[in-house]
Design goal:
globular, 15 helices, D-Maltodextrin-Binding Protein, domain 2, 10 strands, alpha/beta, 2 domains, about 375 residues, about 15% strand, five-stranded mixed beta sheet
């Protein structure tokens, strides 16, 4: 009996030991010293608190355009590149939003630039030179006209009385200025400089032998000639062409066609900046220069009719015939590359010396630079 009971106990002990061994073998690997094994993850979606955060949507909106404040002396085709750039969206292509401030003649536009009210000014190079000698140096960064396009238009009655026609030799035209009044936009403007220049080229004394009268720009200048308040007007297109089209004006001095050889290589219109602005904002200057050069090239590559069609919204009061003639007069003066030359500045010096408005000749490269032009 004792042996049977001991046999049963030993059998029970073997069973217990075997169950313990099986339990150890079924424990998960790597669970040693880590406490009880964790249950396998339940199937189905993870709790909301454990779900990954959704990715933020990419910002695909283009950057807002940068405002470019630009002054100009008046509305005239001497600024044709500005109008083409606006019409063709070249400013927007460079990320710029132009804010244009237009005056009634040259002078206040430059003062606005000097005062910091605008970032750029598109004006005559004579103002660049004047600002330098007055202690307010500015910097020309791109040319939009490399020939004089300020033309003289004489009232038809005066021309008939003086025996003047478009083909009269220049020296005889100049002699006919004795006793006449030349209408210009405002004192000190390029039109003023040109009127005084031609009086002196004739060997006459301004103010006594012939006079210059400020009458304003645009339609005011046309009205002054038509009403015989002045005998001649000096202006860039389109006013001269419109006076001819309406029949009360006759071409007197055609600078657009190079009638005065001294003004054939002449930096007339240039984009100006303050030197400190160019130093602090070189990218803005390069953008502005690229806009103007692109417009210059477009003008050179298209017909006068296409050119006039682009200009029409800006000169809605002008008939298309006048704008085509004006476009044809301006195109040869627009430099495709926008480069400025020493000769173009030297001719300005000569003009200003004849009119008594130049004290001394500064170095030409102190006034303009081609460094911002596209390479």
């Amino acid at each position: 009996m004792f042996h049977a009971t001991r046999g049963l106990c030993l059998a029970a002990l073997v069973v217990v030991l075997a169950l313990g061994t099986l339990a150890c073998q079924s424990a998960p690997r790597g669970s040693e010293g880590a406490g009880p094994a964790s249950a396998p993850p339940a199937s189905g979606p993870a709790p909301a608190s454990q779900a990954p955060a959704p990715a933020a949507p990419a910002n695909t909106a283009p950057p807002a355009p940068v405002k470019a404040r630009i002054s100009q002396p008046l509305d005239a085709l001497s600024l044709a590149s500005v109008y083409v750039a606006r019409a063709n969206g070249y400013f927007a292509d460079e990320g710029l939003e132009p804010e244009i401030v237009t005056f009634s003649g040259g002078g206040p536009d430059v003062q606005a630039l000097i005062a910091g009210d605008v970032d750029f000014d598109v004006t005559a190079a004579t103002f660049l030179i004047s600002a330098y000698q007055e202690g307010n140096p500015l910097l020309g960064v791109v040319s939009i006209l490399n020939r004089a396009v300020v033309n003289g238009i004489m009232h038809k009655d005066v021309a008939q009385a003086k025996g003047i026609t478009p083909t009269t030799p220049l020296r005889d035209k100049l002699a006919a200025l004795r006793g006449l009044t030349i209408g210009v936009s405002r004192p000190g403007s390029l039109t003023f400089q040109m009127g005084t220049y031609f009086i002196q080229q004739a060997g006459l004394t301004p103010g006594s032998d012939a006079s210059v009268l400020a009458v304003g720009g645009g339609s005011a200048m046309l009205a002054a000639l038509e009403q015989r308040k002045v005998d001649v007007i000096m202006n860039s297109p389109p006013e001269p062409e419109e006076a001819i089209r309406q029949g009360f004006g006759v071409m007197f001095i055609n600078n657009s066609a190079g009638e005065d050889p001294a003004l054939a290589d002449f930096l007339q219109q240039v984009v100006l900046v303050r030197p400190d602005y160019a130093r602090d904002n070189p990218d803005m200057v390069r953008r502005m220069v690229r806009v103007m050069v692109r417009a210059n090239r477009w003008i050179n590559e298209h017909s006068a009719e296409e050119f006039a069609a682009v200009l029409q919204p800006f000169f809605s009061q002008m008939p298309s015939e006048t704008l085509v003639d004006s476009a044809r007069a301006v195109q040869p003066a627009v430099p495709a590359d926008g480069r400025m030359t020493e000769q173009g500045i030297l001719v300005n010096y000569k003009l200003m010396e004849l009119t008594g408005s130049l004290k001394s000749r500064p170095p030409w490269d102190a006034l303009v630079t081609n460094e911002y032009l596209p390479q």
